[in-house]
Design brief:
This protein has about 150 residues and is α+β, with helices and mostly antiparallel strands. The protein contains three helices and eight strands, in the order H-E-E-H-E-H-E-E-E-E-E. It has a five-stranded antiparallel sheet. Strands 1-2-3 form a three-stranded mixed sheet, with helices on one face. Helix 1 (about 5-15) crosses helix 2 (about 45-55). The radius of gyration is 20 Å and the shape is elongated.
Amino acid sequence: MDIKEVVAVAEEALKGTDMFVVDCTITPDNTIDLVLDSDTSVSIDACAMLNHAIGEKFNRDEEDYSLTVASAGIGEPLKLVRQYKKLVGESVEVLLKSGVKILATLDEVSDENITISYEEAVVVEGKKKKQIQRTTHTYTYDEIKWTKEYLDYK
C-alpha cells in the first residue's frame, strides 16, 4: 500500500469540505493511520465517511490492512501552515529549537514564518525592577521545533 494513493483517495473524498489531510503513516504490517483537521471541526461521521471511501478503493482481499481515521488532537504539534492559520488570535505554546518555550498569542501566519506576541519582563532604564511589556517576535518555521494549541483550563 502506498501513502500517496491513500492520501489521494482521502483528498478526493474531502473535496468540497473544509477538512484536509494532516498526516498519513503506513507501517510495514499495513496499519494505516490517517489524521485529518478542519477549519471548523472534524466529526466522527466525517471520519467514518472517509474510512468507508478508502475501504471502497482498496480491496482487503487483495491486500490486508488496518485503517484508523482520526482528527488532529488538541495539544498535538501543528504540521501544516493551514493549521497555524486557523489559530490566528489564539493562545499557542511554541518550543524553539534553541530550547526556549514560549506561551504566546499567534498574531500572523505566512508560508515562511509566524508572528507571536507575549508578555515579557524587561529591564527598563531608570527602573529598579523589570517591567512587564508586550513583546512581538517573528520566527521562521526552521527555528521552531513545535507549536501546539494552548488551552487554559482555568
